[in-house]
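Propose amino acids for all 531 sites.
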């Protein structure tokens, strides 16, 4: 009898497990079908630049969510329940890795300083303004219950940008500097926001003082530095293996698999050691594109470009489709027990702070960048119209903001606290409003500000930059001390007069002389000007 009872219990457990699995298969199947619908509709609407894939996915999710909400008698509008682990473990890595892998390295490294100014310093300024503004204004609107740590988290959540809409209407050939800055700031901004978010999570303070601010800043520097070094190490190790073993002579599949697995391994190691996986996998992508990509076969080069972009596209579409559905989650809206006018005040306040936060750093930091490029010619300076486009491009919020909000204010996508529910709905409203409204207006704005971009100087070069000999050493043991001293004085003079260009020049010389012979690249075997 006991054996029969145990067998019956085992059979029941297996049956329940199969039923549970089947119940998950149905919504996943429907969700995949919706992704296909987004792909087809996005293709049909491709001739309308103002209607990008993000807006299309949100609108389709909104329509499907409405249908599900009506058929479920106002109980739920979603096919799947969002999990922050799903986002950070499966969806975010391919998005960030592809951003690093697809970055135009020559423009990225040439404009590295202004990109880091906007992407790192800008996030710190924006986070401070949004957090301080919410801390001061929310209680005046009758919204209380948030801690100092949560206010700082809100600052990082709403400092993460989504520049896809602007990039789709910019031409990389016509405005290379502007495209590089918008793209570079977008990816560095996302990584920095997550690093700062993780640093804020480590504090537990009721008041914000100089000691707490210093702790946050030091934690941020530690996470940023160690995560970057881990990503760079992963990229260099991959390049060295591919160059030394020449894996492609046996199988192109192994080359691609090695790049994917090492990138994902670096992300998981960063998360294991409580670092920033986003920053790690981004720089792993940059280094793999800079070195590893040139060490693989031609077929692998073509495959990696499209395969990584495809995975990133599917992940982003998945997120925006879910956001469209979740916007109609009736339970979340009902749980937030604030009046409609209070909610509107909160939404307006956050949107205003986002606008002010962008103004506070885009224009001042552009002045600093132009000063450092003062001898580089007009093509290396950020014009006033370009500054306006950069400011506008950073007003839209997207996938990272949603993920950070769910990580901070929910548990596996569920929240039972009215304050947390309010912040989730606020994030959804801001993402929807900024993506749809600002996304629709991006094309007309760019056309108005840059009507004759194609008639301007579009070489992407730096006319004020002298030609340099990439084989010329910084210092040489084969030359006399007086010649080395004279060269050092010239280098120091150029550094003071043209700091950004000089640092970039030093890096190119070092990369050509020491890095590429070991790790590979287009100039490994012969000196090409395209490096």
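Proposal:
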């Amino acid at each position: 009898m006991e054996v029969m009872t145990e067998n019956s219990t085992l059979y029941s457990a297996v049956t329940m497990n199969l039923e549970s699995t089947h119940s998950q298969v149905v919504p996943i199947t429907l969700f995949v079908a919706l992704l296909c619908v987004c792909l087809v509709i996005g293709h049909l609407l491709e001739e309308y630049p103002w209607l990008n894939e993000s807006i299309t996915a949100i609108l389709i999710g909104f329509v499907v969510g409405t249908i599900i909400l009506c058929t479920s008698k106002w109980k739920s509008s979603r096919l799947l329940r969002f999990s922050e682990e799903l986002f950070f473990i499966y969806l975010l890595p391919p998005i960030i890795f592809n951003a690093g892998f697809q970055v135009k390295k020559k423009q990225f490294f040439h404009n590295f300083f202004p990109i880091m100014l906007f992407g790192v310093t800008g996030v710190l300024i924006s986070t401070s303004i949004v957090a301080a503004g919410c801390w001061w204004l929310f209680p005046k609107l009758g919204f209380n219950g948030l801690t100092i740590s949560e206010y700082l988290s809100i600052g990082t959540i709403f400092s993460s940008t989504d520049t896809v809409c602007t990039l789709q209407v910019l031409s990389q050939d016509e405005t290379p500097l502007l495209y590089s800055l918008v793209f570079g700031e977008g990816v560095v901004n996302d990584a920095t926001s997550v690093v700062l978010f993780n640093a804020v999570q480590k504090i537990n303070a009721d008041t914000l003082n100089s000691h707490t601010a210093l702790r946050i800043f030091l934690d941020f520097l530690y996470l940023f530095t160690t995560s970057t070094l881990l990503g760079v190490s992963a990229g260099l190790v991959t390049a060295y293996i591919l160059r030394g073993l020449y894996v492609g002579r046996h199988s192109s599949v192994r080359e691609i698999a090695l790049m994917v697995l090492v990138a994902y391994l670096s992300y998981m190691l960063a998360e294991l050691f409580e670092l920033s996986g986003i920053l790690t996998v981004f720089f792993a992508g940059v280094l793999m594109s800079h070195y590893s990509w040139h060490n693989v076969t031609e077929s692998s080069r073509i495959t990696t470009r499209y395969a990584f972009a495809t995975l990133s596209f599917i992940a982003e579409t998945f997120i925006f489709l879910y956001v469209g559905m979740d916007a109609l989650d009736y339970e979340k809206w009902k749980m937030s027990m604030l009046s409609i006018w209070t909610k509107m005040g909160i939404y307006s306040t956050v949107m205003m702070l986002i606008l002010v936060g962008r103004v506070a750093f885009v224009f001042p930091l552009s002045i600093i960048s132009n000063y450092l490029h003062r001898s580089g010619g007009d093509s290396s300076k950020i014009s006033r119209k370009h500054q306006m486009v950069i400011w506008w491009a950073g007003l839209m919020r997207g996938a990272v903001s949603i993920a950070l909000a769910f990580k901070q204010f929910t548990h596996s996508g569920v929240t039972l606290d009215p304050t947390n529910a309010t912040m989730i709905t606020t994030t959804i409203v801001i993402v929807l409003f900024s993506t749809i409204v600002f996304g629709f207006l991006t094309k007309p704005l760019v056309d108005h500000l840059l009507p004759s971009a194609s008639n301007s100087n579009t070489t992407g070069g730096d006319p004020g930059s002298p030609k340099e000999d990439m084989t010329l050493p910084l210092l040489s043991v084969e030359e006399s001390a007086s010649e080395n001293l004279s060269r050092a004085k010239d280098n120091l003079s150029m550094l003071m007069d043209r700091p950004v260009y000089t640092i970039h020049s030093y890096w190119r010389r070092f990369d050509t002389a020491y890095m590429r012979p070991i790790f590979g690249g287009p100039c490994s075997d012969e000196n090409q000007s395209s490096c």
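The chain has 19 helices and no strands. The two ends are 77 Å apart (CA to CA).
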